[in-house]
Design brief:
153 residues, 4 strands, four-stranded antiparallel beta sheet, alpha+beta
Length: 153
């Protein structure tokens, strides 16, 4: 009888404790979620929702300027790349593609975001950066020309 009760308790409490342990997120997971949520809200024009992740003193000005900018261009896609994560500060680079609403030319821009942790992660600053461009090669390889090492075969 005791064995049956022990099995019953194990069957009830084991999934609960295992399930709860998965609910605690690491600091890097929390950062990733906050960064993705902010940039996803910006991408879809949800500026009020995105503004909850910036300091309250700057929210109204930021929302009005983003709403004004949103009437001029549309963000098509973005990619987030962490650059530095150190303690309670993180720097990420966001590669963004967009186009002006009156134009079909797709443009790219890089934005550097500095995130700080103060209870939860928030966007402390953001600025446009000049991407590191690799110049094209002076000459493209020729198709069909055999490299010298292949001639030995």
């Amino acid at each position: 009888m005791r064995f049956a009760i022990a099995l019953l308790c194990l069957g009830i409490f084991a999934p609960v404790t295992i399930g709860c342990s998965g609910m605690v997120k690491s600091q890097s997971d929390q950062l990733r979620d906050e960064v993705m949520r902010f940039n996803d809200n910006v991408r879809w024009g949800r500026y009020r929702a995105a503004s909850t992740q910036i300091p309250e003193a700057r929210r109204d000005v930021w929302v009005s300027s983003m709403e004004r900018a949103g009437r001029a261009f549309r963000v098509l896609d973005y990619e987030v790349r962490p650059q530095v994560v150190q303690g309670d500060t993180a720097v990420v680079v966001v590669d963004m593609t967009y186009h002006a609403l009156h134009d079909v030319v797709i443009k790219r821009v890089q934005r550097r975001q500095v995130w700080k942790k103060g209870g939860s992660w928030y966007l402390a600053s953001e600025q446009q950066v000049t991407p590191d461009r690799v110049p094209p090669p002076s000459m493209f390889p020729e198709l069909g020309a055999s490299p010298q090492s292949v001639g030995v075969l």
